Amino acid sequence: MITTLIAEQLFDGEEFYTNRPISFKDGKILSLDTVNGAKEIKLPGMLVPGFIDVQVNGGGGCLFNHQTNIETLIKMVKAHGQFGTTALLPTLITSDISTLSCAAEVISQAIAEKTPGVIGVHFEGPHISIPKKGIHNDEFIRKISQQELDIYCRDDLGVKVVTVAPESIELDVIKILVENNVIVCLGHSNASYEQTQAALAAGAIGFTHLFNAMSPLTSRAPNMVGAAILDESSWCGLILDGHHVHPATAMLAMRAKPRGKMMLVTDAMSTIGSKQSSLEFDQHTINLVGGKLTSQTGQLAGSALDMITAINNAQSMLNLSIAEAIKMASYYPSEFLNLNHCCGQFSVDANADLTLLTTENSSHHVMRTWIGGNTIFNRI
């Protein structure tokens, strides 16, 4: 059956339209117009491309590191779907080889079964720097092995992202990863400016949560932060919750980095879409207080951020337009992940991944979410 949605406003990823139809069938967009014989549904609010999150540790009360199975992925997608996310990369935080291998098998199954919302995997570590490990368990931080390299180079994992520290991995290994369609990000690193530049030259194209857990920009040493902001070709993820990065710092980076190269990420833990107020992770007791997750050591421990809140923060903290904020959550991540416009914008043959927003008290809220044309969340 063909479905045509007609919302009061539509943002296709580039332009706004009033009462413009969008028609889809079998999970794909057919037309940005009405289609004969379609079931027409009129909707209040603004229809936008579904959000894409490249760093999601958990949701719905589950953490991918702890419950490494398909059921966890389904719960994560459902939890984040409440906040407009329609495609995500389940993220495995630094762990032992058995958990890493298990995660790869679970992701392979999810991709083979076309589990809605799961488009690949993000391995955040274990090839990182101990001085910048954050809450990552230093017991598991290590040099890359052939077994791990073989896992990352598999061709059945969908979109593959691996976060590494340049000082902890050989440049030739970065090249091998890139040759095997792995998107290499730099992070959890104490690398110098020169080491970071060398990793970029070897094929790395992204930075995991800019400013956080990386060598800072200083007057005499630009370090990783300086290299990230100066490089015009790479992408930077930004945790815009008001705790990880000061708004003024984020604004400076936005002004310096070329347009379209900054994207919103959540780095969300299991609390999203659940009633959890605390969790355990690798000998850390993590508590949620005032919208911030911290361990008993006082360290930030992932985030309690959802994507629609990140979009609202981008407007209020960075003075961005709603169009630019939405693109940071949809179009730009799609470009970074090389999804070939199947996600992140409305165009013919793109996935029918849609989010319906309403505005209340100057903030945007998610009313309904579709993945592949199927409703996964509905507050109407």
Amount of helix: 25-40%
The stretches of 5 or more residues where confidence is low (pLDDT under 50) are none
Average pLDDT score: 96
- Largest β sheet strand count, sense and barrel closure: 8 strands, mixed
End-to-end CA span: 22 Å
Gyration radius (Cα, Å) is 20 Å
Strand content: 25-35%
User: Which of globular, elongated, flat, extended, rod-shaped describes the shape?
Assistant: globular
Derived structural class: alpha/beta
Give a description of the structure.
It is a single chain. Strands 1, 2, 3, 4, 5, 19, 20 and 21 form an eight-stranded mixed beta sheet that branches. Strands 6-9-10-11-12-13-14-15 form an eight-stranded parallel beta sheet. It has helices at 70-81, 97-112, 146-152, 171-179, 193-202, 223-230, 247-256, 307-318, 322-329, 331-336, and strands spanning 3-11, 16-18, 21-25, 28-31, 39-49, 51-56, 58-59, 62-63, 85-93, 120-124, 159-164, 182-186, 206-207, 235-238, 262-264, 278-281, 284-289, 292-295, 354-360, 363-371, 374-378. The protein has ten helices and 21 strands. The protein is globular. With 380 residues, it is an alpha/beta fold. The two termini are 22 Å apart.
